[in-house]
Structures are given as structure tokens and as C-alpha cells.
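Here is my example:
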Amino acid sequence: MDLAGRTALITGGGGGIGAGIAEAFVDKGMKVVITDINLDYACAEAERLGHGVLALQHDVTSLDSWAEVKRAALDAFGPVEVLCNNAGVAQAFKPLDQVAPDEFDRLMAINVRGVYNGVITFAPDMRERGHGHIVNTSSMNGLLAHGTFAAYSASKFAVAGLSEALRVELAPFGVGVSILYPGLTRSRMSEGQQPGLDAKTAEAIRSRMMQPVWLGRAVARAVETDQLHIITHPGHKAQVEARFQGILDAHGAPAEPGFVGGSIKID
């Protein structure tokens, strides 16, 4: 897809990865709408980027809010052709049985239901037009589950699975789907995730954070080339290989002796 002149909407665009995607899209000559639960953050990024970027307040858990930003984007720039479901929240590191039910529900509502809401708001129009692209932000935690981060990992594994299935569903209609798996990236979320760290440790962590615009440029390339998986932090490759090898190694004899059944294609 040639990005110049097309309209993109990016949730969670008031900083971090969302702002990096917005910057990369502006550099490609796109018309950009950035949304955020915090309108001040979105407006600050719009002012920084210039080029007529539109900033909107947006609660991704609310379908009414999705309808409002869709109308505003259409009025300002025309139909949204690239949707980036990027808004997300993290959690403090702690065992799953110490994650309160309301904290777990909030993670799922924003990180998973928020993506679903974006898809059902924009995918039908893209399917009807016969073109478009959706980018869903997962995480390296959507490929590698970590202890004391189970709820967040669950939400990001869900985004990855949802997105792979969605790509199969939309491909016949000329609509692409990509999954972004970011590692440690400079953002309010990553910098504020572990309050109380000593200054030396906090600075060591910050020094390992990738600048968001580089993730944005990787996303732009993926949309241009219809790339499914976007890996921006390849340093985790050995761990991913080990995980998948373990899954492959578990494919031994069937549980029922002599069983020869297989998958059934459902049209």
C-alpha cells in the first residue's frame, strides 16, 4: 500500500509507541488522527507533529467513543484506511493470584476489548471498499510469557491470536493485518511501570529503551508491504525459538492409540 495521502487513526497516540507511529506516518505524507484517553497528551503530540494532525479524546472500551472518533475522522480527512489499535495498559509485576479482579478486567477491557472494538468499527468499511490495513499492538509478552506478568501476557497473547485469525478473514477482501510485538520502548507506561526503583537501576532500564519513532517506521514498512509480524526487538529470538521448539517437541504420538483424524477446514 502506498501510504501518501491516506488517512490513519492511531489509538494511544498521546505518547510512546503511538506517537512514534504517528510521526512515521506523517513523514510518509499521511493524514493522521491520534486518539488518547488523555486529550492533553494527544493535543501535545499533534502540536509537536504539525501537518494538520487531528487529536481526539477516546475511550477504547466504549463503542460510543469509537463511533464519535470515526465520525470526526471522516469529517476531517475522509475514510480511515489504516487503523492502528495501539492503546494499552500494563500492570505491576506480581503473581497472578495477587492481581485483583478489577485490575484483570481493566487489562482485558483496554488491551483486548479495545482492539475488538476498533476492528468492528472499521473493518466492515474496509471490507466493503476492498482495501485497508489494521495494525494491532501486541508485545514480546505476546510471544513470551513471563512470571509475575501473567495478566498482561494473557492480554497480549489474545491480541496476537485475534490478529492472525483476522488476517485470514480479511485477506480475501484486500484488507491487510499486522501484529506489532514491541520490546522495551520509551514511553510513559514503560518508564512508570516500576515506581520506587533506585536511580541507578531506573537509568539502566531507560538506557535500554528503543526510541518510539523507530517502531513507527517499522510499522509503516509493514503496512506498505502487507507484513504480518513486526518484530522490532530481535534480541529475544533465541527465547522465542526455544518456546516454539518445546511446542513442536510435544507433537508426539496421539493421545488415542492409532488415532488418524486431522483438522477440518470450515468454509
